[in-house]
Amino acid sequence: MDYLNHEFKVLIDGKLRQAARGGLMDVINPANNKVIAKIPRCTSEDVSVAAAAAKRARHAWKNTYIGDRAGLLVKLAGIIRGHFDELVNMETAQYGGPLSKTRNFDIPAAIGEIEFMAGLGRSVTGKTISADPGARVMTFREPVGVVGLITPWNFPLVTAVSKLAPALIMGNTCLLKPPSCAPLTVLKLAEYAVEAGFPAGVVNILTGPGSDVGEAIVNHPDINKVNFTGDSYVGKRIMELASACVKPVASELGGKNAMIILDDAEIDSVVETAVYSAFFNSGQNCGSPSRFFVQSGIYDEFVECFVSAARGITVGDPMDPKTMMGPLAYNACRDTAERFIEDAKKAGSRMLLGGSAPSELRGGAYVMPTIFEVYDSRQELMQEEVFAPVIGVMKVETPEEAVELTNDCRYGLCASVWTRDFRLALKLIDRLEVGTAWINQHLKIVPETPWGGCKESGWTKENSILVFDEYTYHKHVWINLDEKPHTFWEDKI
């Protein structure tokens, strides 16, 4: 799709506009490396204007009846639904997710996320505390204020609204920076926010390089908190910058997730889920499993079935409805994946499937589904996030060995255990150092359940009622009912 004739604009203080200095950036279709759109290249100057607008708007927005805030979110979801087909095509064109994914997951999930948060936010309450019979003590949730939201490119629209919706329903005003390589659907969201009638300054959406716009958001004194999803390296940089002014950072970072497959696992179910979850979105999913620890009794059967099933994945033009896996988001992702493949070969791992893309796909950022048999869990392929359809399978003798190898990693996002023995599975999960664990399931993420990790995968929670902790703080109020306040000096004066 070619969107060069559409004038994409950012949203600042209720108005759609170009960047203050008039700069533009290219958006490239990773399937063919052709420029499909030009977007505003904002700078710190635009961030300052947006932050000032958000600061001006925050008190009025906080004091807006929560039902009215929810109503605007529901209206926004309705506008997105009305542009469904347009957004499906645009999402696919900008980052390569196949139509089968963007139509059945990305856009429906974005709508569902907004509607869920609109309803859930209306049920949030404070607490009363029995601290003193001569007082009434309670807590209230207060919005953080102005929040900076920096979102990734692997699910451009849904990750943007999964931060924006809970922040808004809790009464915060927002500066949202989508990824430079895949910003188009979020820029359309800016247009829809104006159409829905959000007050000026409540929603601000800016595009531009992370080194300029992203850092300006983190450094700006009027932005009270930053919520970031992306790789651990950038997350650490954001935390470093934010520490200078003690600014809180919510972070959902990388993952190196494991599937633990025990001898009694139901082979058809585990293979079906393994293929889907490992290669969904071309492996560009922080929750995708990229390490498979398989017990020796089932190992040979699993590997044979897994490789055979993965060989059947249709890789090609993401605009073809038959395509199951498209390209990676941009060329640098492909180059990184290819380096991991070559390094795995040099490390002695045996490639069972995949490698270089066929000649007809080499005009885009394609990497084929690639599976290695691995003999050393400390090699780079088993320790670092590839964010591509490149995975390692390793034989283990016992469930305990699989847990130890899973935990022997700096990441702690998610893992799954596959067995018919639920008592054993629960015992193993109790020892796993992850934020999300499944039994006989992997990559099931819905708005009702929390999502987030530990260790270097970050500590934030997305989704569920727990996400409101990221956008509020608890204000404690003590109301004295006694005529005379109590002090410990009473007998001394």
Q: Could you characterize what this model shows?
A:
- The chain is α/β, with parallel strands linked by helices and 493 residues long.
- The protein contains 13 helices and 21 strands.
- The strands form 6 sheets. A 7-stranded mixed beta sheet has the order 14-15-16-13-12-18-19, with helices on both faces. It has a 5-stranded parallel beta sheet with strand order 9-8-7-10-11, with helices on both faces. It has a 3-stranded antiparallel beta sheet with strand order 5-6-21, with no helix packed on it.
- Helix 8 links the parallel strand 10 and strand 11 (249-252).
- The longest helix is centred in the first third of the chain and has 23 residues, at 99-121.
- It is globular, with a radius of gyration of 24 Å.
Question: What is this entry, summarized?
Answer:
The chain is of the alpha/beta class and 493 residues long. It contains 13 helices and 21 strands.
Q: Can you give the helix content as a percent range? A: 25-40%
**Intertermini distance:** 81 Å
CATH architecture group name of the largest domain: 3-Layer(aba) Sandwich
- Quickly count the domains: 2
Strand ordering within the main sheet: 14-15-16-13-12-18-19
The computed structural class is: alpha/beta
Count the helices. How many?
Answer: 13
CATH class of the largest domain: Alpha Beta
- Count the strands? 21
Largest sheet: 7 strands, mixed
Taking all Cα atoms into account, the compactness measure Rg is 24 Å
% residues in beta strands: 15-25%
Mean pLDDT: 96
Shape: globular
CATH fold label of the largest domain? Aldehyde Dehydrogenase, Chain A, domain 1
- The stretches of 5 or more residues where confidence is low (pLDDT under 50) are none
- The CATH homologous superfamily of the largest domain is named Aldehyde Dehydrogenase, Chain A, domain 1
